[in-house]
Design goal:
The structure holds two protein chains of two kinds. Chain A has 14 helices and no strands. By secondary structure, chain A is mainly α. The longest helix of chain A is centred in the N-terminal third of the chain and has 40 residues. Classes of the chains: A mainly alpha, B mainly alpha. Chain A: Keywords: Cell membrane, Membrane, Transmembrane, Transmembrane helix, Transport.
Chain lengths: 286, 317
């Protein structure tokens, strides 16, 4: 009996050691490239050519200034454009998805089920399949080189809607809405001032996801924006890639990648608990 | 008249209007920015419509000529590239994710620092794919730091040209896709495993089942719906593969266009303003995705029904 327990315990210790070892390797893979990125963004061109180093250099500020001053790379307007598009996407997507989800959750109407089924069906349809028509239509509407087509369509975000709907199903008591009606609150007022505050946790999580998706979006913006002062960060990175690579100051290359990645990572590290929980809720409940 | 007399009826009528109003913005935006563009994309696919120099040819109706052109030329190659790169990334992704999810949820194993591990492995999912690809390009270029270090250590005598070899290029793309997605899959599978009724494990334990048996006989069969969901959504994501190969190979998909994906092919047609062919590529993609979307819908609505049943039965959690 004791012998059996002992060998069981020994096995458990081994199993634990193996799992920590595998986890350590995976974490190393996840962190190594970003660590190298940070290190290289602080070194000068010559140092970078020498190969890897685990210690940072002293050229962070120099690289940063060089990048901002580079006349071929409108980085400042790139950051601004990316931020405008991402922030507006996050606001529009969460507000209108919450509204749609509440409309289907709280009211009974004839096409309610049909509407829900349509949204579920289009949920996983990639936006790329309609890109040809989208780009032509935006051109016809005079919205080429405008940021509007990048954030306005997020009003219909089926994935955000689905998350909001699930959140309402499990967290929203209709009694509160009925009480508000008795108090004479209009439906829109009830939604804005009673329902939205209850949905705050869901809105926060989805706002982050939408922000990140818009921040990272490359395919459609690259087809719509060709004026230098309208470009977003991913387009600038593509531009860097297509330039004659060897002539570039590598310190600047790494610095631009840092600017594109690091803000998201910082926000993520602060809010990771909620984000990871949000991912877990996003899928189907098995 | 009648409605005003019966309060119940009146309530239904007056509130239905609000339902339509609340879902209206979503559907208006959907029709303008997705439905019309989709229909016109499919419409273009039946036309000869492209730009040659400054001259615009077409649109002239040509029936299915664009499609027969597509299938005669490169489409199947690129679809093949896309699927190969997806599957090579997906197999390690689902394997590692299942393993980690099983370890994280194993009570006996009782791993510490789970919050930290989950935070780290999910992180690559949020970073800009194009920036990540640029980073890999810089690190793995012919005279980049990876080659520099391998030579300094004496492992290589001359630089290995990752981006001149089919295996090197595809390998890097698959590796990046793996890194970006295994954390996400791990978290989804963990949520699924934690949703399994703990009573089943207790009963199995009393019957003397080992951890291994419990994993294969209880966990795997019960999380099959979410595994199917992960598989199909990952396939849809794989078909959209663009940012990473586009930036890594500078849009060329070299060597020998072995890394050109469907969306890169679409992108090339759009840049050369061949709307007819671009429309045809999109239509093919749309048809494939439509089938996959139906599958996702059935998985989702199936599990939604079971959630509802559970709640009615009072097992509410």
């Amino acid at each position: 009996m004791t012998k059996h327990a002992k060998s069981g315990k020994g096995k458990l210790v081994t199993a634990r050691a193996v799992s920590y070892f595998v986890l350590a390797i995976l974490c190393f893979l996840c962190l190594f490239f970003f660590y190298m990125l940070l290190i290289n963004s602080s070194r000068n061109n010559f140092q970078i050519q020498q190969g890897f180093s685990f210690l940072p250099g002293k050229s962070f500020a120099v690289n940063f200034n060089n990048m901002l001053k580079d006349a071929n790379l409108p980085v400042v307007s790139g950051i601004r454009n990316s931020f405008i598009v991402s922030a507006l996407s996050a606001i529009l997507a969460t507000y209108f998805s919450a509204m749609t989800a509440y409309g289907i959750f709280a009211y009974n109407f004839k096409f309610k089920r049909a509407a829900f089924i349509i949204i579920l069906l289009i949920m996983t349809m990639p936006t790329q399949v309609s890109a040809v028509g989208f780009v032509n239509q935006m051109q016809a509407m005079g919205l080429r080189n405008s940021l509007i087509p990048l954030f306005l369509p997020t009003i219909s975000s089926p994935v955000v809607f689905f998350f909001m709907k699930q959140y309402l199903d499990s967290n929203m008591p209709m009694e509160i809405v009925e009480a508000a009606r008795i108090d004479g609150s209009s439906e829109l007022h009830t939604f804005n001032f009673i329902v939205l505050p209850i949905m705050k946790p869901a809105i926060a999580v989805q706002a982050i996801f939408t922000f990140v998706t818009a921040w990272n979006n490359f395919f459609i913006p690259a087809l719509l924006l060709d004026k230098a002062d309208k470009k977003t960060l991913p387009i600038l990175i593509a531009q860097l890639r297509s330039a004659d690579f060897l002539k570039f100051d590598m310190g600047q290359v790494y610095m631009l990648i840092t600017i594109a990645i690091i803000p998201i990572i910082i926000v993520y590290l602060i809010l990771s608990k909620y984000i990871v929980r949000g991912v877990a809720l996003g899928g189907v409940k098995g | 008249m009648n409605a005003e007399n019966s309060p119940k009826r009146r309530k239904n009528i007056s509130y239905a209007k609000w339902g339509y109003l609340f879902i209206a913005p979503f559907f208006i935006s959907f029709i303008i920015f997705s439905l019309f563009p989709l229909l016109s994309t499919i419409y273009y696919s039946f036309f000869k419509y492209y730009r040659q120099g400054l001259k615009i040819i077409g649109p002239t109706f040509i029936g299915f000529e664009n499609f027969s052109n597509l299938f005669r030329t490169d489409l199947l190659n690129y679809l093949g590239n896309t699927l190969i790169m997806w599957i090579i990334g997906f197999i390690p992704q689902i394997t590692v994710a299942l393993l980690l999810a099983a370890w994280f949820t194993n009570q006996r194993l009782h791993l510490r620092g789970q919050g930290f591990f989950k935070t780290v492995i999910y992180m690559p999912n949020l970073i800009m794919a194009s920036a990540f690809a640029m980073l890999f390009f810089a690190l793995f270029s012919d005279n980049g730091p990876v080659n520099g270090s391998l030579q300094a250590l004496g492992i290589l005598s001359q630089p290995f040209r990752f981006l001149a070899s089919v295996t090197g290029t595809r390998g890097l793309i698959c590796f990046m896709n793996f890194l970006m997605w295994f954390g996400n899959t791990t978290i989804l599978l963990m949520a699924a495993i934690m949703g399994v009724d703990p009573g089943l494990y207790e009963a199995a334990e009393i019957d003397g089942a080992t951890s291994n048996q419990m994993f294969w006989r209880i966990t795997i069969p019960l999380i099959r719906p979410i595994m199917a969901y992960v598989l199909i959504t990952s396939l849809i994501g794989g078909l959209q593969m663009f940012d990473v190969p586009q930036i890594l190979t500078n849009g060329a998909g070299n060597p020998d266009r072995s890394a050109t994906t469907m969306i890169m092919y679409l992108n090339n047609h759009m840049y050369s303003k061949n709307y007819g062919m671009a429309g045809a590529v999109s239509t093919v993609l749309f048809l494939i995705c439509a089938i996959l979307c139906f599958l996702v819908y059935f998985i989702m609505s199936g599990s939604n029904d079971s959630v509802k049943k559970e709640r009615k039965g009072g097992v509410h959690k």
